[in-house]
Amino acid sequence: MYRRAAMGGLAAAAWAALALPATGLAQPADATGGDPFGSMLWPDLRREFLGTAPVQFDPRVKVSGPAFAEDPMNVPISVSADGLGPVDVIMVFVDRNPIRKVLEYFPVGSLPRLSFRFKLQQASPVRAAVKTRDGAWHVGGVVVDSAGGGCTAPGLTRRDGSWSRSLGEVSARVFPRSVAPLESDATGATGAETATRVRLRVMHPMDTGLAGGIPAFYINRLSLRDGAGRELMRLNAFEPVSENPIFSFDFTQTPEGSLSLVGTDNNGNRIAGTVE
Questions:
Q1: What structural domains does the chain harbor?
Q2: What is the rounded average pLDDT of the residues 183-202?
Q3: Dihedral sign for Cα atoms in the order 59, 65, 66, 67
Q4: Using an 8 Å Cβ cutoff, are 137 and 53 in contact?
Protein backbone atom coordinates (compact mmCIF):
# COMPACT_ATOMS: atom_id res chain seq x y z
CA MET A 1 0.00 0.00 0.00
CA TYR A 2 2.83 2.41 0.79
CA ARG A 3 4.60 1.84 -2.54
CA ARG A 4 1.39 2.31 -4.54
CA ALA A 5 0.50 5.46 -2.63
CA ALA A 6 3.95 6.87 -3.18
CA MET A 7 3.80 6.27 -6.93
CA GLY A 8 0.34 7.76 -7.06
CA GLY A 9 1.64 10.84 -5.28
CA LEU A 10 4.51 11.20 -7.73
CA ALA A 11 2.14 10.94 -10.71
CA ALA A 12 -0.15 13.57 -9.23
CA ALA A 13 2.80 15.86 -8.63
CA ALA A 14 3.97 15.42 -12.23
CA TRP A 15 0.53 16.31 -13.65
CA ALA A 16 0.34 19.28 -11.32
CA ALA A 17 3.72 20.49 -12.57
CA LEU A 18 2.52 20.24 -16.18
CA ALA A 19 -0.59 22.21 -15.36
CA LEU A 20 1.38 25.12 -13.87
CA PRO A 21 2.55 27.95 -16.18
CA ALA A 22 6.16 27.41 -17.17
CA THR A 23 7.35 30.78 -15.92
CA GLY A 24 10.74 29.44 -15.05
CA LEU A 25 11.30 27.69 -18.39
CA ALA A 26 12.77 29.20 -21.54
CA GLN A 27 10.01 30.60 -23.75
CA PRO A 28 10.08 30.10 -27.52
CA ALA A 29 11.76 32.99 -29.36
CA ASP A 30 9.63 35.47 -31.28
CA ALA A 31 9.99 34.30 -34.88
CA THR A 32 9.31 37.85 -36.12
CA GLY A 33 12.19 39.38 -34.15
CA GLY A 34 9.82 41.68 -32.25
CA ASP A 35 8.36 43.19 -35.43
CA PRO A 36 5.30 45.34 -34.56
CA PHE A 37 3.62 44.15 -37.77
CA GLY A 38 4.23 40.49 -36.94
CA SER A 39 5.92 39.87 -40.30
CA MET A 40 7.84 36.60 -40.51
CA LEU A 41 10.01 38.26 -43.17
CA TRP A 42 11.39 40.91 -40.84
CA PRO A 43 14.44 38.98 -39.54
CA ASP A 44 15.64 38.36 -43.11
CA LEU A 45 14.90 41.95 -44.15
CA ARG A 46 16.87 43.25 -41.21
CA ARG A 47 19.89 41.13 -42.13
CA GLU A 48 19.65 42.01 -45.83
CA PHE A 49 19.22 45.78 -45.55
CA LEU A 50 20.44 46.82 -42.10
CA GLY A 51 23.24 44.35 -41.43
CA THR A 52 24.60 44.02 -37.90
CA ALA A 53 24.10 47.65 -36.85
CA PRO A 54 21.82 48.45 -33.88
CA VAL A 55 18.13 48.60 -34.86
CA GLN A 56 15.11 49.91 -32.99
CA PHE A 57 11.47 50.48 -33.89
CA ASP A 58 11.03 54.20 -33.33
CA PRO A 59 7.75 56.17 -33.30
CA ARG A 60 9.66 59.27 -34.46
CA VAL A 61 10.01 57.63 -37.88
CA LYS A 62 6.59 58.31 -39.34
CA VAL A 63 5.44 56.63 -42.55
CA SER A 64 2.09 57.71 -43.98
CA GLY A 65 0.20 55.91 -46.73
CA PRO A 66 -3.35 54.90 -47.67
CA ALA A 67 -5.06 52.06 -45.85
CA PHE A 68 -5.95 50.65 -49.28
CA ALA A 69 -4.10 51.39 -52.51
CA GLU A 70 -6.73 52.22 -55.12
CA ASP A 71 -4.02 52.30 -57.80
CA PRO A 72 -1.26 49.79 -56.95
CA MET A 73 1.02 51.40 -59.55
CA ASN A 74 0.87 54.80 -57.81
CA VAL A 75 0.81 54.40 -54.05
CA PRO A 76 1.56 57.70 -52.23
CA ILE A 77 3.96 57.49 -49.29
CA SER A 78 5.35 60.21 -47.02
CA VAL A 79 8.24 59.72 -44.60
CA SER A 80 9.44 62.04 -41.84
CA ALA A 81 12.19 61.46 -39.31
CA ASP A 82 12.20 64.66 -37.27
CA GLY A 83 13.66 64.56 -33.78
CA LEU A 84 16.43 62.02 -34.47
CA GLY A 85 19.24 64.51 -34.96
CA PRO A 86 21.49 64.40 -38.04
CA VAL A 87 20.37 61.72 -40.51
CA ASP A 88 22.71 60.03 -43.00
CA VAL A 89 20.19 58.08 -45.08
CA ILE A 90 16.52 57.09 -45.24
CA MET A 91 15.89 53.71 -46.86
CA VAL A 92 12.39 52.62 -47.91
CA PHE A 93 11.58 48.97 -48.57
CA VAL A 94 8.48 46.76 -48.83
CA ASP A 95 8.20 43.32 -47.24
CA ARG A 96 6.13 41.59 -49.90
CA ASN A 97 7.22 43.24 -53.13
CA PRO A 98 9.16 41.05 -55.58
CA ILE A 99 11.72 43.90 -55.62
CA ARG A 100 11.80 45.08 -52.04
CA LYS A 101 14.05 48.14 -51.98
CA VAL A 102 12.28 51.27 -53.26
CA LEU A 103 14.77 54.08 -52.67
CA GLU A 104 17.58 55.52 -50.59
CA TYR A 105 17.42 59.21 -49.68
CA PHE A 106 20.44 61.20 -48.46
CA PRO A 107 19.28 64.54 -46.95
CA VAL A 108 22.64 66.28 -47.33
CA GLY A 109 21.25 69.81 -47.02
CA SER A 110 17.54 69.10 -46.68
CA LEU A 111 15.22 67.97 -43.91
CA PRO A 112 14.77 64.23 -43.26
CA ARG A 113 11.37 64.20 -44.99
CA LEU A 114 10.24 63.09 -48.43
CA SER A 115 7.14 62.09 -50.35
CA PHE A 116 6.88 59.94 -53.46
CA ARG A 117 4.81 57.22 -55.17
CA PHE A 118 5.70 53.58 -55.74
CA LYS A 119 4.36 50.28 -57.11
CA LEU A 120 2.87 47.73 -54.71
CA GLN A 121 2.48 44.10 -55.71
CA GLN A 122 0.32 42.97 -52.76
CA ALA A 123 -0.77 44.01 -49.28
CA SER A 124 2.36 44.59 -47.22
CA PRO A 125 4.13 46.59 -44.54
CA VAL A 126 5.96 49.55 -46.07
CA ARG A 127 8.99 50.50 -43.98
CA ALA A 128 11.39 53.40 -43.64
CA ALA A 129 14.75 52.75 -41.96
CA VAL A 130 16.61 55.88 -40.90
CA LYS A 131 20.34 55.75 -40.17
CA THR A 132 21.61 58.39 -37.78
CA ARG A 133 25.17 59.63 -37.41
CA ASP A 134 25.86 57.16 -34.58
CA GLY A 135 25.36 54.26 -37.01
CA ALA A 136 22.04 53.09 -35.52
CA TRP A 137 18.91 52.37 -37.56
CA HIS A 138 15.48 53.68 -36.52
CA VAL A 139 12.55 51.95 -38.20
CA GLY A 140 8.91 52.92 -38.75
CA GLY A 141 6.26 51.74 -41.15
CA VAL A 142 2.67 51.42 -42.24
CA VAL A 143 0.58 48.56 -43.65
CA VAL A 144 -0.98 49.24 -47.05
CA ASP A 145 -3.63 46.88 -48.44
CA SER A 146 -3.92 46.45 -52.19
CA ALA A 147 -5.63 44.49 -54.92
CA GLY A 148 -2.08 43.92 -56.18
CA GLY A 149 -0.22 43.62 -59.44
CA GLY A 150 1.52 46.99 -59.39
CA CYS A 151 5.00 45.61 -60.10
CA THR A 152 4.10 43.25 -62.95
CA ALA A 153 1.95 45.49 -65.18
CA PRO A 154 3.38 47.78 -67.89
CA GLY A 155 3.01 51.54 -67.37
CA LEU A 156 0.66 53.77 -69.32
CA THR A 157 3.42 55.33 -71.42
CA ARG A 158 4.64 51.87 -72.36
CA ARG A 159 1.21 50.89 -73.59
CA ASP A 160 0.70 54.01 -75.74
CA GLY A 161 4.35 54.36 -76.76
CA SER A 162 4.67 57.98 -75.59
CA TRP A 163 7.57 57.40 -73.18
CA SER A 164 10.29 57.96 -75.77
CA ARG A 165 9.05 61.47 -76.61
CA SER A 166 9.22 62.73 -73.03
CA LEU A 167 12.08 60.66 -71.57
CA GLY A 168 14.13 62.64 -69.05
CA GLU A 169 12.03 65.83 -69.07
CA VAL A 170 12.13 67.59 -65.69
CA SER A 171 9.48 69.87 -64.20
CA ALA A 172 9.40 71.34 -60.72
CA ARG A 173 7.66 73.62 -58.29
CA VAL A 174 8.95 75.42 -55.21
CA PHE A 175 6.51 76.64 -52.57
CA PRO A 176 6.37 77.43 -48.85
CA ARG A 177 4.52 75.22 -46.43
CA SER A 178 3.84 75.06 -42.71
CA VAL A 179 4.44 71.97 -40.62
CA ALA A 180 3.29 71.56 -37.03
CA PRO A 181 6.26 70.59 -34.82
CA LEU A 182 6.29 67.05 -33.48
CA GLU A 183 5.92 66.50 -29.74
CA SER A 184 9.34 64.83 -29.65
CA ASP A 185 10.82 67.98 -31.20
CA ALA A 186 9.00 70.49 -29.01
CA THR A 187 11.22 72.98 -27.23
CA GLY A 188 8.46 75.04 -25.72
CA ALA A 189 7.74 76.98 -28.90
CA THR A 190 4.23 77.11 -30.25
CA GLY A 191 2.83 77.55 -33.71
CA ALA A 192 3.88 75.96 -36.96
CA GLU A 193 7.29 75.40 -38.46
CA THR A 194 7.87 76.98 -41.84
CA ALA A 195 9.66 75.12 -44.58
CA THR A 196 10.22 75.31 -48.31
CA ARG A 197 9.09 72.35 -50.37
CA VAL A 198 10.62 71.41 -53.70
CA ARG A 199 8.52 69.07 -55.82
CA LEU A 200 10.15 67.45 -58.84
CA ARG A 201 8.83 65.28 -61.63
CA VAL A 202 11.02 63.35 -64.04
CA MET A 203 9.45 61.69 -67.06
CA HIS A 204 10.53 58.06 -67.19
CA PRO A 205 8.71 54.72 -67.65
CA MET A 206 10.38 53.16 -64.56
CA ASP A 207 10.00 49.59 -65.84
CA THR A 208 10.51 46.90 -63.21
CA GLY A 209 11.55 44.19 -65.67
CA LEU A 210 8.69 42.01 -64.41
CA ALA A 211 6.21 42.81 -67.20
CA GLY A 212 6.41 40.43 -70.15
CA GLY A 213 8.91 41.45 -72.82
CA ILE A 214 9.93 44.73 -71.13
CA PRO A 215 13.38 44.82 -69.51
CA ALA A 216 14.16 46.77 -66.34
CA PHE A 217 14.57 50.47 -67.19
CA TYR A 218 14.55 52.95 -64.32
CA ILE A 219 16.11 56.08 -62.84
CA ASN A 220 18.87 55.03 -60.47
CA ARG A 221 20.32 58.32 -59.23
CA LEU A 222 19.24 61.93 -58.76
CA SER A 223 21.07 64.86 -57.17
CA LEU A 224 19.69 68.33 -56.44
CA ARG A 225 22.21 71.20 -56.25
CA ASP A 226 21.94 74.88 -55.42
CA GLY A 227 23.20 77.81 -57.48
CA ALA A 228 26.72 77.42 -56.06
CA GLY A 229 26.86 73.75 -57.02
CA ARG A 230 26.45 72.43 -53.48
CA GLU A 231 24.53 69.17 -53.21
CA LEU A 232 21.26 69.56 -51.29
CA MET A 233 20.03 66.00 -51.51
CA ARG A 234 20.88 62.74 -53.26
CA LEU A 235 18.51 59.91 -54.08
CA ASN A 236 19.10 56.36 -55.30
CA ALA A 237 15.92 55.02 -56.89
CA PHE A 238 15.01 51.44 -57.74
CA GLU A 239 12.48 49.67 -59.94
CA PRO A 240 9.40 49.95 -57.66
CA VAL A 241 9.31 53.78 -57.89
CA SER A 242 6.26 54.82 -59.91
CA GLU A 243 6.25 55.79 -63.57
CA ASN A 244 7.07 59.47 -64.23
CA PRO A 245 8.06 59.80 -60.58
CA ILE A 246 7.27 62.80 -58.42
CA PHE A 247 9.45 63.49 -55.38
CA SER A 248 8.95 66.15 -52.71
CA PHE A 249 11.67 67.41 -50.36
CA ASP A 250 11.63 70.00 -47.57
CA PHE A 251 14.20 72.66 -46.66
CA THR A 252 14.33 74.97 -43.63
CA GLN A 253 15.19 77.87 -45.96
CA THR A 254 14.61 78.52 -49.62
CA PRO A 255 17.73 77.33 -51.47
CA GLU A 256 19.74 80.13 -53.06
CA GLY A 257 19.74 80.73 -56.79
CA SER A 258 18.59 78.38 -59.49
CA LEU A 259 18.49 74.72 -58.54
CA SER A 260 19.81 72.05 -60.85
CA LEU A 261 18.77 68.42 -60.97
CA VAL A 262 21.17 65.89 -62.46
CA GLY A 263 20.93 62.14 -62.62
CA THR A 264 21.11 58.95 -64.64
CA ASP A 265 19.08 55.85 -65.37
CA ASN A 266 20.30 52.24 -65.46
CA ASN A 267 20.85 52.48 -69.23
CA GLY A 268 23.24 55.42 -68.88
CA ASN A 269 20.82 58.12 -70.07
CA ARG A 270 21.53 61.52 -68.53
CA ILE A 271 18.90 63.52 -66.65
CA ALA A 272 19.33 67.27 -66.30
CA GLY A 273 16.97 70.12 -65.45
CA THR A 274 16.88 73.57 -63.89
CA VAL A 275 14.48 74.79 -61.21
CA GLU A 276 14.09 78.57 -61.02
A1: 42-181+191-275 (2.60.40.2470)
A2: 64
A3: negative
A4: yes
For 82-127, the pLDDT digits (tens) are 999 999 999 999 999 999 999 999 999 999 999 999 999 999 999 9
The average confidence (pLDDT) of the chain is 86
What string of H, E and C letters represents the secondary structure of the chain? CHHHHHHHHHHHHHHHHHHCCCCCCCCCCCCCCCCCCCCCCHHHHHHHHHCCCCEEECCCCEEECCCEECCCCCEEEEEECCCCCCEEEEEEEECCCCCCEEEEEECCCCCCEEEEEECCCCCEEEEEEEEECCCCEEEEEEEEEECCCCCCCCCHHHHHCCHHHHCCCEEEEEEEEEECCCHHHCCCCCCCEEEEEEEEEECCCCECCCCCCCCCECEEEEEEECCCCCEEEEEEECCCECCCCEEEEEECCCCCCCEEEEEEECCCCEEEEEEC
Give the contacts of 250 (CB within 8 A, at least 6 positions apart).
110, 111, 113, 114, 177, 179, 195, 196, 197, 198
Quick one: average pLDDT of 55-65?
Answer: 97
Q: What is the pTM of this model?
A: 0.84
Which of the pair, 199 or 181, is modelled with greater confidence?
199
